[in-house]
Amino acid sequence: MKEITSPQNTYIKLLVQLKDKSRERKKTGTFLIEGEREISLALKGGYELETVLFYPELFSIEKLEKLINNVRLSGVEAQTNCIEISKDVYQKLAYRDTTEGVLAVAKSKENNLTDLKFDKENPLVLVAEAPEKPGNIGAILRTADAANVDAVIIANPKTDLYNPNIIRSSVGCVFTNTIATGTTTEIIAFLKANNFNMYGAALQASVNYHTQDFTKPTAIIVGTEATGLSNEWLENATQNIIIPMQGEIDSMNVSVAAGILIFEAKRQRNFE
């Protein structure tokens, strides 16, 4: 088994770039995953692992063998390399303070809108327009996973989905959700072509969210906390909806709003 002990190793320097730079992730079509749970969820989500790097003081050979066996069981046809790394190398690559001792290099997915297929008559999708903060994107993905929505669509993304902050804040739900990205115009066209009712969370020309029927093919659309939804969404929505608030301010965290709306849709569908 290959062993790397120097943080100055050329391959390790390349992985640091992969961790820190979106441009590098896009160029290579790969990204870095940290942590046993996240790697396991990526395997479940059909991601192909190119390389597993482990620090044996924290992640034993037995654990490694179990992980590699899971790679084989995942059905993804791929040859996964294993590299033993030193403490210095691990600390150079690790993004989190918690020490698990294992990282993996995985191949990105395209996340094309045209690849989205629904196997039920009344799919439920969550659309987030131009979310900026990785923490918010991660929280939205956790909400979507909890509700088992049929897809999450990111309109006009500001960052790539394999940003380490998104992987971390989503606790791996970036791998468990069906995700697509596109422009607002492309997504509206896609939803209309697939006969979705579109409900935009907005303050203007809105009705209370719980008065609407979310049992048909439904897209819930949320915007940014700063500016809300763009005019394009507001004009194309089947209906704009609002969460009635009774406090001093009229805004809430976008992932919280998404959770309220999505789970109302799930309630109407008897959580099926």
Q: What attributes characterize this protein structure?
A:
21% strand, 272 residues, 2 domains, 60s Ribosomal Protein L30, Chain: A, 11 helices, Alpha/beta knot
Count of the domains? 2
In whole angstroms, how far apart are the ends?
47 Å
Estimated helix fraction:
25-40%
- Widest sheet: strand ordering: 8-7-6-11-9-12-10
Low-confidence region ranges: none
Structural class per helix/strand content? Answer: alpha/beta
**SSE ordering:** EHHEHEHEHEEHEHHEHEEEHEH
Mean model confidence by pLDDT: 94
In this structure, how is the largest beta sheet organized? 7 strands, parallel
- What is the overall number of helices? 11
Estimated share of beta-strand residues: 15-25%
Explain the layout of strands and helices:
Blueprint: E1 2-4, H1 10-20, H2 22-28, E2 30-34, H3 36-44, E3 49-54, H4 61-73, E4 81-85, H5 87-93, E5 102-107, E6 124-129, H6 134-147, E7 151-155, H7 164-169, H8 173-176, E8 179-182, H9 184-193, E9 197-201, E10 206-208, E11 218-222, H10 231-236, E12 239-242, H11 254-268
Parallel strand pairs: 1-4, 3-4, 6-7, 6-11, 7-8, 9-11, 9-12, 10-12
Antiparallel strand pairs: 2-5, 3-5
Helix pairs in contact: 1-2, 6-11
What does this structure look like?
- This protein has helices at 10-20, 22-28, 36-44, 61-73, 87-93, 134-147, 164-169, 173-176, 184-193, 231-236, 254-268, and strands at residues 2-4, 30-34, 49-54, 81-85, 102-107, 124-129, 151-155, 179-182, 197-201, 206-208, 218-222, 239-242.
- With 272 residues, it is of the alpha/beta class.
- The chain folds into two domains: 2-107, 2-Layer Sandwich (60s Ribosomal Protein L30, Chain: A), CATH 3.30.1330.30; 113-268, SPOUT methyltransferase, trefoil knot domain (Alpha/beta knot, 3-Layer(aba) Sandwich).
- Strand 6, helix 6 (134-147) and strand 7 form a beta-alpha-beta unit.
- The radius of gyration is 20 Å and the shape is elongated.
- The mean pLDDT is 94.
